[in-house]
What we know:
By secondary structure, the chain is mainly alpha-helical. The protein folds into two domains: about 10-180 and about 335-420, no CATH class; about 220-330, no CATH class. It has helices at about 10-25, 30-45, 50-60, 65-110, 115-140, 145-160, 165-180, 205-230, 235-245, 250-265, 270-285, 290-305, 310-325, 330-345, 345-375, 385-400, 405-420. Helix 3 (about 50-60) packs across helix 4, helix 7 packs antiparallel against helix 15 and helix 9 packs parallel to helix 13 (about 310-325). It is globular, with a radius of gyration of 21 Å. It starts with 10 loop residues before the first helix and ends with a helix.
Amino acid sequence: MEHADPTKPTLAQAARVWLRIGLLSFGGPTGQIALMHRELVETRPWIDDRRFLNALNYCMVLPGPEAQQLAVYIGWLMHGTRGGILAGALFVLPGALIMLAISIAYVWFGSIPAIDAAFDGLKPAVMALVAAALVRMGKKILGKRSLQIIAALSFVAIFFLKLPFPLVVLIALIFGWWQARDISSGSTISTPDANTALAPKTFSKTISRCATWLTIWLAPPALCLALLGADHVLTRIGWFFSKAACVTFGGAYAVLPYVAQKAVETEAWLNPAQMMDGLALAETTPGPLVLVLQFVGFLGGWNEAGSLPPLLMACFTAFMASWCTFMPAFLFIFGGAPFIERAGTHPRLNQALSAVTAAVVGVILNLAVWFAWHTIKPDANTTHLLPLALAAMFFYLLHFRKWNILPTLALAAAIGLLIAR
């Protein structure tokens, strides 16, 4: 089915959809990217496939949560800076509030069986959502044989050879550039788009924009350093997660070993079992998977409360961890996206980015297989085939019966509760 030409929504319309995405974005970056594609490209013609994947290409090579960065990028495309702020905030805020509530319940009551059961039912639905999105994206993107080969090789490189995906994307970019060597590098093509924010006219404006967002990002940990000292838990959490935001490529699963080494072994903010509990909670709540870092920050404050009530300090440290994890996205997007949009008018670079887009399909397939495998086989001695059967049913409902996401997720949660009884 052909999609209508992109249309520009009002800011209020966009806010409602971004809030909807924030509430329904289960399944880590794979499910969230699939959800955004369905809501913003397929259901509503607000952005076309080319722009969506061009944005995704850029976000995939940045450190930090690529799904939130993609939300900021698309929000910026539609409504400029205020649209990017709105999209990025609403994408994270529902999950952050739910994670905070669950963290409080965790330290007071331990695991809540009903919530665990509902989230177990959601996992097969997320598997189906991702599979349906991959089928649709593959049909649209991988029309050429060469692009199909790039996608397949990218999957092999990541899933079997364990190459880091920034390297895979870089190789695809170089190959695509080389493959397009016959295209005149001096020509440009016109890509008029009334919905696109203007690229900065001067280098000084870009520097000013980056300086502003860098200051906003680092203001809370800097203030804690000045008022509380370098040894206070708020200061240590702020600077540690600020550093993690800059050096962790590859999404949440890449950042976890780095964070676990510091948080568990060096700082003793939590123990290994609690770290795994935090990951399980983050996997089954809406929002970016790196919300597990908010859980780490929460327990760090709970265990090092000092003179403050543990719950109050835990809320402060949870906020600090989330701020320093998600705020860099605004710096990276508002500083770099205008240049990515301008570069998209270069014909040879367009060809190179097509190769990267194909590689990204392979990357998403890898994430989908990883998520499905760990749902079906959570450990070496356990195999659950029921999630696979449920995922097939949800795929049929989503892809062939054209069910909406919300009733599909509601049915999935209800089945999870029913099975647990």
